[in-house]
Specification:
The complex is a heterodimer. By secondary structure, chain A is α/β, with parallel strands linked by helices. Chain A has two domains: 1-62 and 133-217, P-loop containing nucleotide triphosphate hydrolases (Rossmann fold), CATH 3.40.50.300; 74-131, no CATH class. Chain A is 34% helix and 27% strand. Chain A has a six-stranded mixed β-sheet with strand order 5-6-7-3-8-9, with helices on both faces. A three-stranded antiparallel β-sheet of chain A has the order 2-1-4, with no helix packed on it. The longest helix of chain A has 14 residues, at 115-128. The mean pLDDT of chain A is 90. The model of chain B has no long low-confidence stretch (mean pLDDT 86). Chain B has helices at 2-32, 41-51, 55-88, 90-105, 108-118, 121-145, 150-158, 163-201, 207-216, 220-252. Chain B is built from ten helices and no strands. In chain B, α3 crosses α8. The radius of gyration of chain B is 22 Å and the shape is globular. Chain B has one domain: MetI-like (MetI-like fold), CATH 1.10.3720.10. Chain B is mainly alpha-helical. Classes of the chains: A alpha/beta, B mainly alpha. At the A-B interface, β5 of A face α7 and α8 of B.
Chain lengths: 217, 253
């Protein structure tokens, strides 16, 4: 489905990826974890085609790619429905709003929505676009726990048969949503785990990150 | 309660300020007691109301307004095109960055005189107004365009939103409120400059021409009445622009 071969990416003198390769299978949800500055968002932006790279190859990246950004990036002078009809026809947009329980908010402007609703609209837009590949950059960041789980369930209800690549700092989120988790460290895959059991995966990831904590001398 | 007090103050303070200006003017006129040097506010106001019955005034007024509008529309379009170009290309930004201080430093009177020699007085007035207004409008255009942020552009690219939709449904409504405010303030400045340019270039028609004639015939009260018209037009346009922009923002904020 998506293959990254020998990727090279530098920001000036800073090398983010030297010889990075990754394969994501059809229908797979892959979570990318790693410390800040590990190149997670860079990876998404390269796959999305909004960031140039210095070498290597992207294979089988579909023409249409959806992206759920860290911020909702809704157009504030357009209503919820108008925001959605930017990527799909009105009938489908209304159907999706109905499915998401947001039909009553179709005529609202984004600044009148709560954080959770606004996020739902951003997620809806990504799925309405109907791209086979969905990219997500910390989509559930800064949300309270209940809302986070609600939105993760909402995401799951829409994401069937989609291939997804998502970046997160949250091991629970990764184990909850992903089929596979990779941990990036200095531009390389330090850990690659298939999620068979959520609790075990979460525990393994936690242990990994705890082992990286520098103890005070 | 606080809001109500603010609303009252918003109206009362400008009214008191205007009253003070008129009171000072009346006092100064009473002291000089010379209508040619400083006419009384009552004389100027009498002339002001008399203007509306004068066909010559209407012709001059609308000629100046039309010239201002032409100068303004052209400079506004140029400013936005230049600002968009500068955002797109660094070299364009460098060229504009070199030209703007030059344009800003041009001595207005000298340019008018040269332009009168090279072209007609009408063209001179329009061109010089454009040259003076352009740097200010460019700065405003730059800040208006920055309202259309990089994140929105990325979102549009990802979702393959057609260029027509991006321009007319996303970017224009985003940059319109600050652009309208800039336009209002710009037009006010533009009108003032146009009258000055008309005076220096001695155009055949326009508010500047009427002011020149008033100077020749010592019609000071009439001159002040014309100044009042120019000031009121500027304030009216600027306030209308602010009102429109506020209404635009209120719709979705």
């Amino acid at each position: 489905m998506l293959e990254i071969k020998n990727l090279k990416k530098n920001y000036g003198d800073l090398c983010v990826y030297e010889d990075f390769s990754l394969f994501v299978a059809d229908g797979e949800t892959l979570a990318v974890l790693g410390a800040s500055g590990a190149g997670k968002t860079t990876l998404l932006n390269i796959v999305a085609g909004i960031l140039p790279f210095d070498g290597g190859e992207l294979v089988d990246v579909p023409e249409k790619v959806s992206y759920i950004f860290q911020s909702d990036r809704l157009i504030k002078h357009m209503t919820v429905l108008e925001n959605l009809t930017l990527v799909a026809d009105e009938k489908r947009a209304k159907d999706y709003l109905l499915r998401a329980g947001l039909a009553d908010f179709a005529g609202e402007y984004p600044l009148h929505l709560s954080a959770g609703m606004s996020r739902r609209v951003a997620i809806l837009r990504a799925f309405l676009y109907d791209a086979p590949l969905v990219l997500m950059d910390e989509p559930f960041r800064n949300l309270d726990l209940a809302l986070k789980y609600e939105l993760m369930e909402f995401y799951k209800s829409l994401s069937e048969n989609k291939t997804a690549l998502f970046v997160t700092h949250d091991v629970t989120e990764a184990a909850y949503l992903a089929d596979r988790v990779i941990v990036l460290e200095k531009g390389r895959i330090a850990m690659d785990l298939a999620v068979k059991n959520r609790a075990n995966t979460e525990e393994t990831l936690k242990q990994y990150f705890f082992s990286k904590i520098k103890k005070p001398q | 309660m606080k809001n109500k007090a603010n609303k009252i103050l918003n109206i009362a303070v400008p009214l008191v300020t205007f009253f003070c200006i008129f009171a000072l003017w009346a006092a100064a006129a009473a002291i000089t007691d010379e209508e040619i040097i400083l006419p009384r506010p009552s004389s100027a106001l009498k002339e002001f109301f008399a203007l509306f019955a004068d066909k010559k005034f209407y012709r001059a007024y609308f000629t100046t307004l039309l010239r201002s509008l032409i100068a303004f529309v052209v400079s506004f379009a140029l400013a936005f095109a230049a600002a968009a170009g500068a955002r797109k290309s660094r070299n364009a930004a460098r060229v504009i960055g070199t030209l703007l201080p030059l344009v800003r430093a041009l001595p207005t009177v000298a340019v008018v005189l040269l332009l009168v020699l090279w072209t007609s007085s009408r063209t001179a007035a329009v061109v010089v107004t454009m040259l003076v207004v352009l740097p200010t409008l460019y700065t405003n255009a730059e800040s208006a365009l920055s309202a259309a942020d990089k994140e929105t552009a990325e979102m549009c690219r990802i979702y393959h939103i057609p260029v027509k939709t991006r321009v007319f449904k996303i970017y224009l409504p985003q940059i319109l409120p600050p652009a309208v405010v800039a336009a209002g303030a710009g037009f006010s400045l533009n009108l003032k400059l146009m009258v000055a340019a008309e005076v220096i270039a001695a155009t055949a028609e326009g508010m500047g021409t009427l002011l020149n004639l008033d100077k020749i015939y010592f019609e000071s009260a009439h001159m002040l009445a014309l100044v009042l018209v120019i000031v009121l037009t500027g304030i009216l346009v600027e306030s209308a622009a602010k009102g429109i922009a506020k209404a635009m923002v209120k719709k979705y904020a």
